[in-house]
Amino acid sequence: MGEVGGLLREWRTRRRLSQLALAHEAEISPRHLSFLETGRSAPSREMVLRLAEHLDVPLRDRDQLLLAAGYAPVYPRRALDSPELSRVRAAVRLVLRAHEPWPAVAVDRRWRLVDGNAAVPVLTAGAAPHLLRPPVNALRLTLHPDGLAPRVLNLGQWRAHLLARLRRQAQLTADPDLTALLDELRGYPGGTDPEPVEPGPGDVVVPLRLRHGDGELTLLSTVSTFGTPLDVTVEELSIETFLPGDDATAAALRAATPGGAPLRRPDPGSASGHRP
């Protein structure tokens, strides 16, 4: 039982909570929490789930806590192409299509492309074929010198934003694959983590400024997730939409999208279709 105690302590430390603060939030005594973390007391199944909830532990890792405490996992990990997730797939497609002609993609927890709408080729034009072969990693595609990077007019600013976002995600989840991806992206031309760019007068968000033909697209990114997931795969899905930041960008996207084809999705059984 000491294994689960050590894991709970790691998650508490990662969330920068003291034993007193976590005990107060979970409505247990600090002494009891101390006994759980040191292995002097064995947590019940309900206690493991209660502490995981207050520590905001991802569903995938809540199952690991349960296993470490000697209990069976409770959160399913269905493949995205399974019959049980057909409504989820339909909902994702509905959201992606609803955003056309604005580009939108669905990615999994490791930034692998799950789906994309008909406007995505506007973003990926000119990228090397090897970066577009499934499984496509959205961050690698964006920052790779053979990907979108040569077209990103504010590459330093956008790269700083993406690396900071990935770094926070790796720290929050302790996922070694995300850490490896972060190390890879840091090794691309441009050095290690760039300095954060100071916002200018009137700036409210970091735009993606992308060369498009003889002009420029100014895109604002938004991210959507399922609000009440009970499945590991569903919790780890996110949809990123690139909205036009000005009238010229909106007109260019409307002109470019008709007849476009969505970025080719992985076949069932490939990296994003396997059982996590």
UniProtKB/TrEMBL annotation:
The keyword DNA-binding applies. This is DNA-binding transcriptional regulator, XRE-family HTH domain. Signal peptide: none annotated. Residues 8-62 form the HTH cro/C1-type domain. CDD domains: HTH_XRE. The lineage of its organism: Bacteria, Bacillati, Actinomycetota, Actinomycetes, Micromonosporales. Keywords: DNA-binding. One of its GO terms (molecular function) is DNA binding. Residues 255-276 are annotated as: Disordered. It comes from the Bacteria. Pfam families: HTH_3, MLTR_LBD. The keyword DNA-binding applies.
